[in-house]
Amino acid sequence: MANSALTRRRFLTLTGGAAAAVAGSGLLAACGTSTTPTTGGAGSVTFPEYAPATLVKPDLPATADGVMAGFYEYPANLATAFTSKPGEGLGNVTVLTNMFNPVPPSAGSNAYWQEVNNRLGATLDITMTPSADYLSKLSTIIAGGQLPDLTLISSKLAHRADVLTRMCADLSEFVSGSAVKDYPFLANIPRDAWLPTAYGGGIYGVPIPRGIAGTIFFSRNDLIRARSLNNAPASYAEFVTLAEGLTDAKANRWAFGGIKRVIVFVGTMLGVPNTWKAEGGKFVSEFETEQRKEAVARTAELYKKGLFHPDSLGGKLQVRDLFGNGTIALHGDGYAAWDTMAAAYKAAEIGAMPAPKAEGGGIAQHPAGAAAFAITAVKKGDKARIKQLLKICDWLAAPLGTTEYMFRKFGIEGTHYTMQNGKPVLTDKGKVEVKLPLEYVIDAPPVLGPGDKARVDAQRAYQEKVVPTMLRSPADGLYSATAVDKAGEMSKIIDAAELDIVSGRKPAAYWDEAVAAWKKAGGDAARAEYEKAVSS
Amino acid sequence: MAAPASPWRRLRRDWFLLMLGLPGLLLVVLFHYVPLAGNVIAFKDYRPYLTIWEAPWVGFTNFRVIYEGDPAFLNALSNTLIISLIQVVVVFPIPIALALLLNSLLSEKIKRVVQSVLYLPHFMSWVIVVALFQQMLGNAGLYNTWARVHDLPLLHIIGNSDLFLPLITSQAIWKDVGWGTIIFLAAISRVDTELFEAVAVDGGGRLRQLWHVTLPAIRSVVVLLLILRLGDVLSVGFEQIYLQQAAVGQDVSEVLDTYVYNRGILDGNFGMAAAVGLVKGVVGLALVLIANKVAHLFGERGIYSRW
């Protein structure tokens, strides 16, 4: 399994640092930004004991530095993990989460959804919000004061720590230490992923685990080959040549679709730190580095050359679809999108492009992805209900090798999928109905495959190339109340500035102004909190 | 006339009518007046996880962005005023002109068809309207894709911050002008046709009829709608602008409504957002009262008057 294990020393830093974060946030309250002292961080939390599930032996075992395990085949013998319905008697279970797919048919006309309800023994009432609008939806729901039973808590939510500790259930008595044994598949979630759930000595959510492979810059290898271009550029100059070769505006073809991911990719080539850089106890934000400024400036040049889809700036493009139909040829997305896109766009030959060092000389250090996509919080309530909701989470986290997993991912055999050559193939009905975003409520830790051997091998090869040298953020696992509470406001300043510069509305030098605003909005406070956390 | 009945007798006489009005009154109180009390969070440091009672009082701290002149706030305010000015000067008169034009159509059948076609866009949500404009005029939209293939000049309209004002103005016209004619058409239809005949008898043509009969007849309605419009002067349409904000940047597109949303809802500054909203409401109310007073000075009835 993809557990990027924490070293002992590092874990001590984490827990020790978190205690200091409490003091740090008290200081913040005195400045008037917070009405109640925000306590947070791991504190005295005992995280759930990690007990990896060993249902199926992977073809390619996971490595210690975080390369995910790979499977070529679906296991022939499935175990049924749940003998009773986990949600029996709960009645209606309301869920709020985001989604990236088209909305599936409603429960009334969706046999898959009905069967989910049947197997859970409860009625899942899921509010699905497109991921782009999720923060707005979540903020308004919270302002309304009525949380659903299970809520995906976005990392950009304002006052996140307080929202979690005041409106959501403290799960520590149910999952801390060995208590998690009641939920074997929650115990299967690595400890790294649990870190962002801890606030003020409690555990306020269940993480949706992710591997550290993070974002991948995908390429349409078929399009690249058709133009006799090089799909593995060895320097920034070669990368630009590739992008220029892929662009043919007359034929409705461009190299890129999304601005942000290109900035990050160019930044990776230039050696931008992952969020923060720590030097002798001093924290420097990636935004303050020359390289990050340069990355934005270079992306602006790429934009000026006309290498971006002309409507990129609005941020409302269906970038995946454009990548799938060949309108754009390079597209940054989460590593999990590889399988999703390969399944959706059969004609596309999808490859992954590691970022070269800008001046050549090998592969650059890539930023490690977060160990959790987000966390799902449970509404406060009586213990019996919370326990049962956690049972549902446990069911949702059942990994490869269980009948629950197969059903969650593919539906009912015969109705939603058929087994062909040992692999499940979705029927037309399955393609429409098995689109409930259950994987954004809780999911099993990610693995590569099972799937087409060539694809699993390509995914594994990419990870083996990139993961061992991945840059981790020195702030990982450290707690800063400001960084958590002001995340949305702070990232908006940066995002707006990036768009302004890339579009040419503002000169590259405007970056300094934006970073100054970012510092004022919380960047400096976050730095101070992190520095304090490390020094104690 | 008989002497006015005593309140008690009037109540006995009208109780049924009053009962009919009661549900409406309750709804207005419940949904318009009770929520007004929520404005109190403008003076509190409100957090979503606290109840309004628990949140501590902070006086006028939330109004700081206004009286200290936060640059982002000032930018939003000036954009709002510019857009509003354009809407009053350019967009407001168009339905009047259109109503006059429609009224001059002789064939009832054609009039119906034209009216229906003009009303239709009003029923589309802004999301659809913005998407339509994007699909037609977008940089990868219908025209530009075609033009690119045929080596014709491209139209850089969507996402061009210099053209943002004309763009949203034309969208507003396209969407709501037809709908806006309804009230004017109703007012015109009330005009006594004998007056037109009188002008004709005196030798006046169509222009004179328009100037001396139609316009004076609808003047009070125009003034009424203009006064109501002034009350909304600080609201210029949230959805339309929010949907197109990313493409042109906040410098030209941030208005008070989006500022309140971005800072208030997304950044969790509910107190500040409420403060800005409250000031917006107060300014709107003041404008309506002043405009009404001015209307009285010019001998119009305005939206209300004391008899």
Keywords:
heterodimer; A: 536 residues; alpha+beta; D-Maltodextrin-Binding Protein, domain 2; 2 domains; five-stranded mixed sheet; three-stranded antiparallel sheet; 39% helix; disordered N terminus; B: 307 residues; mainly alpha; MetI-like fold; 0% strand
What does this structure look like?
The complex is a heterodimer of chains A (536) and B (307). With 536 residues, chain A is an alpha+beta fold. Chain A contains 20 helices and 14 strands. A 5-stranded mixed sheet of chain A has the order 2-1-3-12-6. A 3-stranded antiparallel sheet of chain A has the order 10-7-11, sandwiched between helices. The relative contact order of chain A is 0.19. In chain B, helix 8 (164-189) crosses helix 10 (206-231), helix 9 packs across helix 10 (206-231) and helix 14 (256-266) runs antiparallel to helix 15. Chain B has 2 domains: 1-33, no CATH class; 70-297, MetI-like (MetI-like fold), CATH 1.10.3720. Classes of the chains: A alpha+beta (536), B mainly alpha (307). The interface between A and B is medium-sized, with 34 and 34 residues.
Here the CATH topology of the largest domain in chain B equals MetI-like fold
| CATH architectural category of the largest domain in chain A | 3-Layer(aba) Sandwich
Largest interface, by Cβ-Cβ below 8 angstroms: which chains and how many residues each?
A-B, 34 and 34 residues
Shape of chain B: flat
Strand order of the largest sheet of chain A: 2-1-3-12-6
Characterize the quaternary organization of these chains. Answer: heterodimer
Rg of chain A, alpha carbons: 23 Å
What CATH first level of the largest domain in chain B would be assigned? Mainly Alpha
Number of alpha- plus pi-helical segments of chain B: 15
Order of helices and strands of chain B: HHHHHHHHHHHHHHH
- Beta content of chain B comes to under 5%
Q: What is the second-level CATH architecture of the largest domain in chain B?
A: Orthogonal Bundle
* Terminal-residue CA separation of chain B: 18 Å
Low-pLDDT residue spans of chain B: none
